[in-house]
Structure formats: C-alpha cells, structure tokens
Amino acid sequence: MRVRQVGLLVGREWSWPPRFLEEIAKRDAGVVGEYVHLGGTRMDEPVPYAVIIERISPEVP
User: Fold this and answer.
1) Degrees (nearest 5) of the Cα angle 42, 47, 50?
2) Residue-number span of the structural domain to which 41 is assigned
3) What pLDDT, on a 0 to 100 scale, did the predictor assign at position 13?
C-alpha cells in the first residue's frame, strides 16, 4: 500500500494541530501527517503531499 502524506500549514493556532497529527499517526490507514516544509522547489520535483490543509490565511491580512 502506498503511504499518503498530509501536510499541515498553520500559523499561531495551536488548539488542534498537534492533536490532529497524533490522530493521523494512531490510525493505521496508510497516511502520515506533518507540518508543511516550505522552500524553493523545481518544476520537475515530485510533490510530497497528497493533501495540504491550510489554516494560516485567516491570520494574513
């Protein structure tokens, strides 16, 4: 089974991100979660995340 990676992009909100990642980890469903790693990318570079959950935009004016 292929492992799917979920990326979590958050700001100062810490009420649920750690618990969300813990919940993903404890389920044996072929999914792993982590905080998104941002940086420069190349056009031919594979995308590591199947899904990115973005929760930072409410903090950006």
Assistant:
1) 165
2) 4-59
3) 77
For the entire predicted model, the pTM comes to: 0.73
> Alpha-carbon distance 42 to 54, whole Å?
21
The tally of domains found in the chain comes to: 1
The structure tokens listed for 15 are 């009420």
Label residue 59 by pLDDT band (50, 70, 90): low
54 contacts: CB under 8 Å, gap ≥ 6: 9
The four Cα atoms 40, 60, 7, 14 give a dihedral, to 10 degrees, of 130
pLDDT tens digits for range 29-50: 899 999 998 887 788 888 889 9
Write out the two tokens for 31. 């999914």
